[in-house]
Design goal:
The complex is a heterodimer. Helix content of chain A is 35%, strand content 30%. By secondary structure, chain A is α/β, with parallel strands linked by helices. Chain B is 44% helix and 13% strand. In chain B, helix 6 (163-173) crosses helix 9 and helix 13 (347-367) packs across helix 16. Classes of the chains: A alpha/beta, B alpha+beta.
Chain lengths: 398, 504
């Protein structure tokens, strides 16, 4: 008994070294990639990675950074996978892609189509789903990854946080992760969009400097890149992006300004938006009804109005509803006339709510979308006016 | 009393002749200097002269009151009642000696047992029997506060090395004739007294029989501590988890007895054994019952949490940092990666070295002379804490992991469960160093399988969790208020469930 037990135990123990530890990787052998940029280069791609320099990031006291917290490396390749592997020739560490924070497409690459390079990104098991994909506005992705970020030592991290903040508080950006992009790419009823980023200032001057407080070049999110299938066809501006977020029920918070009757403006904090898309049909034509429930607070009143009066609030409500409707309608028009691309996902709603109709018209949805009738019906409620009622200007006048 | 002999003592009867007897005793005990002999003469009726001797072991007995009584003037009926040596001995027993416990001795065997446990032996020339008089005066450690299992609120007395004091402490807690204390002598050479205590009517007869059966199997030359017996009676030798509970607190033993358990107390050690032992029992401190139930419950959960921390932390750290860094939040990964910059060893070696260093430190702090204790602990904390990190030999994260592990270990009220955690920790570290999180969970599954296969005196070790007993959940992970604890735990077999019911 004991002999047999010992034999079994021994053979089990001998199995351990057989397996070895092949997936073992010590943290100091990893080049942690936080940002990746894809650009078109001749026939293939130029891949740029932003790798963290861990020693310079940590907050160990007494050691001031002597080298930048991140370094970028670029390498060319026929495919993305090849370029990533070729990177080993100029990097001492193994590229570790699981902690990627941001993936930047160069505008040229985006216009040529992102389907090919995205295959590697979604196939490789190291990539997680939680990084954001963005498009460099009028520049190469590699340039975007070479700009220093103030405040946050890791630029890619900075981009990531900036995007989620902008999306949450301003609604003029979109947090597109890999899984969302893939879903949009596969769906005829919804065209993908990716947030754009542009470099403000001189790239050359975007160096890290101890003498200057104001950074010479900053990265700024601006609008969204509109795709038809996998090819980029144009840019949405700030209002267009807001329209996109409203229509997709993805607005968390934003601010809207309303022009006052005389001069000045009132701003409202939009705190909660619920968007409901209903698809009706008349014959073979789908009709989309969008119902918006907007809750807002008054953020400031820079003109002579009295917020203690019900009429004033009614007026604000009407104005905000009109303004929102206007933004949405212009956004939809732009998508229909200029891009011919259903970035709002109306097709998806048609598919879900009028399945029979969708089977008939879905095949040439792009054409159908261009003449789609959309009715917007915003309902606004003002919840709070803040700690004072009449505007300061009004009080001073009296 | 069991008096099997295999040593030098012979089972011969005492001789009639005092001189022969004394010579025999002297030679049997090798003229040991601590055996003192005092001879006396006592004038009897007529011309008779009673020659006698009093023997005692120095330091164990106080012989003076006995001698005073023997040498004093005897009552008036002395002359008529003492016809011969035998009646003289009877007379001494009946009318002269004032000491409590007197036993007649006819064999050398018994004589030595009594002599060496502090009795005074009185031999009279011509009498076929001697007297063993209880003159025990122990120079033992007084009852003190237990220093291993301390409490904030609760009784402050702990067992001592003297068995009779220990049983008396139990008696004081349970004033009930159903508290039965049986004794045995164990250890062929040491002849150690072992007491088996239980509450008749509450204890399950099967468990009791099992205890006796296992004690019968004990075949050992010496019993110097209760562990000598524990290793004979425990269910499985090769497991780090203790299946016999030990405590130095009489209140704990009393509570366990009243739940139907059996206690085994050994002379010469303050640690009593309690069986059957359940896994949860090792996470319960007597203080859970001395503080209000809410606190008791929270503290118990904390202990389970600390136990898991003590077993798993280093292996989890190894697995996550070397195999699955994608599980870490990015900021934490960067932080850890920056710490690891320039650390020469893989995380597993690092953890192993740190854990071993800590074990060394702990062992040293237990063994070293108290006077140099402080300097060692300063060196230890500085060396394995600050300096090792400063020198870049280990990461600060690893120091934190090791300290969390170490501190969690001390949360365990039962020291031997802490030992189990220490041993299994290394096993899990090896598992996660080879297979990552997969290995870690494999190891945890193995541990749980092992735990569920254990039994303590026929009782499933993991009860009341596996097998699940709903009623016992009130007093395992949680501690319900006393009014709810009307029943004894189902996990320990006992004939009567209701606590308040009078037994027999």
């Amino acid at each position: 008994m004991v002999r047999n037990g010992a034999l079994v135990l021994l053979s089990l123990l001998l199995v351990l070294p057989l397996a070895g530890c092949w997936s073992r990787k010590e943290l100091n052998d990893l080049g942690i990639v936080v940002g990746m940029g894809l650009d078109k280069k001749g026939d293939g791609y130029e891949v740029t990675v932003q790798v963290v320099n861990p020693g310079q990031v940590s907050t160990r006291n007494g050691i001031s950074p002597v080298t930048p917290p991140v370094s970028t490396f670029s390498e060319r390749g026929r495919t993305v996978a090849e370029a990533v592997r070729r990177m080993t020739t100029n990097l001492s560490k193994k590229l570790y892609l699981s902690h990627l924070r941001i993936l930047v497409f160069g505008e040229q690459l985006a216009r040529d189509g992102i389907a090919k390079p995205i295959d590697f990104i979604s196939r490789d098991r190291q990539f997680r789903n939680d990084f954001y994909l963005i498009v460099a506005h009028g520049s190469k992705a590699s340039d975007v990854l070479k700009i220093f970020s103030p405040i946050d030592p890791i630029p890619a991290n900075n981009l990531n946080n900036k995007l989620s903040n902008a999306d949450r508080l301003w609604a003029a950006a979109g947090q597109i992760t890999l899984d969302r992009l893939m879903m949009d790419l596969m769906d005829i009823g919804k065209s993908p969009t990716l947030t754009g980023i542009r470099i403000v200032g001189d790239i050359r001057d975007g160096e890290y400097s101890m003498e200057r407080i104001e950074p010479a070049a900053v990265l700024e999110y601006y609008g969204m890149a509109v795709f038809r299938r996998d090819r980029m066809v144009g840019w949405l501006d700030e209002d267009g992006t807001k329209a996109l977020n409203y229509l997709q029920d993805r607005v968390n918070q934003t601010v809207a300004t309303i022009r006052c009757p005389q001069e000045g403006a009132v701003s409202v904090n939009v705190t909660d938006v619920k968007t409901r898309v209903r698809v009706a049909r008349s014959g073979d034509e789908p009709i989309v009804n969008v119902k918006l429930h907007i809750e807002a607070d008054v953020a400031d009143a820079e003109c002579r109005i009295d917020l203690s009066k019900v009429e004033t609030l009614d007026w604000i409500r009407r104005q905000l509803a009109d303004k929102t409707e206007d933004i949405l309608e212009r956004g939809i028009k732009q998508a229909q006339r200029e891009f011919h691309s259903d970035i709002f996902g109306f097709g998806r709603h048609v598919h879900r709510q009028q399945a029979a109709l969708w089977h008939r018209i879905g095949d040439n949805w792009e054409e159908q979308f261009s003449r789609l009738k959309v009715r917007i019906d915003p309902v606004v409620q003002i919840r709070r006016v803040g700690t004072i009622d009449r505007s300061i200007e009004q009080v001073m006048k009296e | 009393m069991n008096s099997t002999t295999r040593g030098h003592c012979s089972s011969d009867s005492l001789s009639l002749d005092l001189k022969t007897n004394l010579e025999r005793i002297r030679s049997d005990i090798g003229n040991s200097c601590d055996i003192k002999c005092r001879t006396f003469h006592k004038k009897g009726p007529g011309e008779r002269d009673y020659k006698g001797a009093v023997l005692h072991t120095e330091g164990l007995a106080d012989v003076r009151p006995l001698l005073q009584a023997v040498m004093s003037r005897y009552p008036d009926d002395y002359e008529e009642r003492c016809r011969d040596a035998d009646s003289f001995v009877t007379y001494l027993t009946d009318s002269v000696l004032s000491d409590g416990c007197i036993e007649e001795i006819t064999t050398y065997d018994r004589l030595f047992v009594l002599l060496l446990s502090g009795y005074s032996i009185m031999l009279v020339d011509g009498a076929g029997k001697g007297l063993g008089v209880d003159t025990i005066r122990l120079n033992a450690r007084p009852v003190e506060e237990p220093n291993v299992q301390a409490v904030v609120r609760g009784p402050r007395e702990g067992f001592t090395e003297v068995l009779s004091w220990n049983t008396s402490m139990l008696r004081r807690k349970i004033k009930n004739p159903n508290l039965w204390i049986e004794s045995r002598v164990m250890g062929v050479q040491t002849q150690t007294m072992v007491a088996i205590a239980y509450v008749k009517g509450i204890v399950s007869e099967e468990v009791l029989q099992e205890v006796y059966a296992r004690l019968d199997r004990v075949d050992i030359d010496s019993v110097l501590e209760s562990n000598y017996i524990e290793e004979f009676i425990q269910d499985k030798q090769f497991t780090a988890f203790p299946t016999v509970f030990n405590t130095e607190r009489p209140d704990v033993v009393a509570a366990q007895l009243l739940e139907g358990r059996v206690a085994i107390l050994v002379d010469g050690t303050p640690f009593a054994l309690v069986v059957p032992a359940l896994f949860t029992q090792f996470f319960q401190s007597s203080e859970d019952y001395y503080q209000r139930f809410d606190f008791g419950t929270l503290i118990r959960m904390l202990r389970f949490g600390a136990f898991i921390l003590a077993i798993v932390t280093p292996s989890f750290y190894i697995a996550v940092t070397t195999f699955q860094p994608e599980l870490l939040p990015t900021t934490l990964l960067l932080n850890l990666a920056s710490q690891r910059d320039g650390v020469p060893f893989p995380a597993f070696i690092e953890a192993l070295v740190m854990e071993v260093v800590f074990e060394i430190l702990r062992e040293a702090s237990v063994r070293m002379p108290k006077t140099i204790g402080q300097s060692i602990s300063i060196v230890g904390t500085l060396v394995i804490g600050e300096a090792a990190v400063e020198a870049g030999l280990v990461t600060a994260g690893m120091v934190i992991v090791v300290s969390i592990t170490a501190i969690s270990n001390f949360v365990m009220p039962a020291f031997n469960m802490g030992i189990a955690a220490r041993i299994e920790r290394f096993f899990l570290m090896a598992m996660s160093a080879t297979f990552g999180l997969y290995g870690l969970f494999l190891g945890i599954i193995l541990l749980i399988v092992r735990l569920s296969s254990l039994r303590s005196f026929g009782v499933p070790y993991l009860a009341p969790f596996a097998p699940l007993r709903y009623r016992d959940q009130k007093d395992s992970l949680f501690r319900a208020p006393f009014p709810w604890l009307r029943r004894r735990p189902d996990s320990v077999p006992a004939p009567h469930r209701l606590r308040t019911r009078r037994v027999r």
